[in-house]
């Protein structure tokens, strides 16, 4: 019996295009101004220190740090300081009403049904925990965050690493056979399965590369738990 469901976001509960065509450009367009205005904040300085360490460069100016971050955005790098800064910028956009979190119509239906059935729901995405909460907290279907019991991001480890899913299992306190992982990415599903989780691939559109080793569905309403 599945007692918990861990879900990806992009291509699973939400559109990849929303992230890449709306969220990423929004953060990039405001990145330099945000860094200049908040460079004195301790939290921002810690993140800039992390940027220097990852880039193996010291004493970066704000503009130089922005250059590195913009390059990471272009490369779609799954790096914690980038994701954290993007989340901070997106928060301002959601608060200003300039952004609205996209989810597929079947997402709130399935999440509410699973929650009502007593299953624990978790998110595991390369976007920061804050970014995850913003997407689910500002949808056309209302605030979905009360449905979730926890969130995991790149601080837990890479999404294609088996150890990441083992760590998640330890934190939620369930054996893998009782946990279902949902994603559109075959390599992520492979890692989750190797950690002992049940898996299911979402095939939302023709951009997704099918992973026949895993159960496949076109909608969350088709997921069998």
Residues in β-strands, percent: 5-15%
Overall CATH architecture of the largest domain: 3-Layer(aba) Sandwich
Strand order of the largest sheet: 3-2-1-4-5-6
CATH-assigned fold name of the largest domain: Rossmann fold
Major sheet attributes: 6 strands, parallel
Can you say what the CATH homologous superfamily of the largest domain is?
A: HAD superfamily/HAD-like
The number of distinct β-strands equals 6
Count of distinct structural domains = 2
How many whole angstroms does the radius of gyration measure? Answer: 18 Å
- CATH secondary-structure class of the largest domain: Alpha Beta
Report how far apart the termini are: 7 Å
Sum up the overall morphology in one term.
globular
**What is the helix fraction of residues, given as a range?**
40-55%
Whole-number mean pLDDT: 95
Topology readout:
Blueprint: E1 4-7, H1 16-38, H2 42-55, H3 62-74, H4 80-95, H5 106-116, E2 120-124, H6 129-137, E3 150-152, H7 162-172, E4 179-183, H8 186-194, E5 198-202, E6 215-217
Parallel strand pairs: 1-2, 1-4, 2-3, 4-5, 5-6
Helix pairs in contact: 1-3, 1-4, 2-4, 4-6, 7-8
What descriptive keywords fit this protein?
225 residues; alpha/beta; Rossmann fold; Transcription Termination Factor Rho, Rna-binding Domain, Chain A, Domain 1; 2 domains; 6-stranded parallel β-sheet; 47% helix; globular
Task: Describe the protein.
This protein is of the alpha/beta class and 225 residues long. The chain folds into two domains: 135 residues, 3-Layer(aba) Sandwich (Rossmann fold), CATH 3.40.50; 77 residues, Transcription Termination Factor Rho, Rna-binding Domain, Chain A, Domain 1. It is 47% helix and 11% strand. The chain has a six-stranded parallel sheet with strand order 3-2-1-4-5-6, sandwiched between helices. The longest helix is centred in the first third of the chain and has 23 residues. It is globular.
């Amino acid at each position: 019996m599945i007692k918990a469901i861990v879900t990806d976001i992009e291509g699973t509960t939400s559109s990849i295009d929303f992230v890449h065509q709306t969220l990423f450009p929004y953060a990039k367009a405001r990145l330099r101004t945000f860094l200049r205005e908040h460079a004195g904040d301790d939290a921002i300085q810690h993140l800039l220190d992390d940027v220097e360490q990852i880039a193996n460069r010291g004493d970066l100016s704000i503009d130089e740090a922005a250059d590195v971050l913009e390059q990471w955005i272009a490369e779609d790098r799954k790096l914690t300081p980038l994701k954290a800064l993007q989340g901070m910028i997106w928060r301002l956009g959601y608060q200003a009403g300039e952004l609205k979190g996209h989810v597929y119509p079947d997402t709130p239906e399935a999440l509410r049904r699973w929650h009502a059935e007593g299953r624990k729901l978790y998110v595991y995405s390369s976007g920061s925990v804050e970014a995850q909460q913003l997407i689910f907290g500002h949808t056309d279907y209302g605030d979905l965050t009360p449905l979730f019991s926890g969130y995991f991001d790149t601080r837990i480890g890479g999404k294609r690493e088996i150890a990441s899913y083992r760590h998640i299992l330890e934190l939620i306190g369930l054996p893998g056979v009782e946990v279902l992982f949902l994603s559109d990415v075959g390599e992520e599903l492979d890692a989750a399965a190797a950690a002992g989780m049940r898996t299911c691939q979402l095939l939302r559109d023709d951009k997704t590369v099918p992973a026949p080793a895993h159960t496949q569905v076109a909608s969350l309403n088709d997921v069998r738990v």
